[in-house]
Predict the structure.
Amino acid sequence: MPGEGERYEEFEPPASLCPFVRVIWTYSAPAPEPTVQRIAPDGCPELVVDIGAPYEEQGPDGVFRLQPRALFAGQMTRPLALRPVGPVELVAVRFEPDGARDWLGLPLVQATDRRLDMVERLAAVRPPAGDPAGQVEVMARWLEDQRRAADWSLDPAVRAEIEALEQDRPSPPRSTTEHRALQRRFRDRVGAPPRLLRSILRFRRVFDHAAGPDAAGWLEAGLGAGYFDQPQMARDFRRFLGCTATEWAREQVGLARVIASQSYKPGPLSPH
């Protein structure tokens, strides 16, 4: 159940941003439980602006350190552990898997499994506290200015492959040269190779089958998502969340829970 005063909302981006941005979302928790929250990869890079207290992130050395108030989270290939330290309020831009390249101005592989400090770049962006619609309006207006200034574009071959992965269709046959060229383009535009992105998207689908009034058990959810058996799904839980399905369901609260219940919902990519 949501905590007292907890709020999560998703907003469709303006049409001009739809080829690049999947959704803009807001979240607040005035009194979050001070527990570690596991966030799994979902295939989409994000720009996050904290209006309340930033989260602490656990580093490879096990130490928790405060995140910057504005950050870009590149593709994730392993679990992320966060811990709230005060009242939470944030607004975030979830890009399409290949939608952030021109905004970032760097190959996406340079941001994979990293949270890049964007405080200076977003110094003039001030989303209003307590006003989700106003927060989204500020972010959308700023992003539109960024899009126009940099003339954002997409790589049609990369987008077509992502559409096949999203729909769980097999990739077309390619020569070794074509395969390597696509991998290079994915490193630049997505930050993860097609095969890994397919695994992430399959894992994401588990949560769709495990949620809702007619939710299946974890085994049925895994089979519905495309896993062959429970051990195969269990390996991905360890790989992408660092725990078992039962442990995740028992432990998760706050942002981790709402992201899994809402953000994993699949849907068609935005129009080209």
User: Anything to note?
Assistant: The first strand starts at residue 7 and ends at 11. Strands lie at 7-11, 21-29, 37-39, 46-50, 56-58, 64-66, 70-73, 80-83, 88-95, 115-117. Residues 96 and 111 are 15 Å apart (CA to CA).
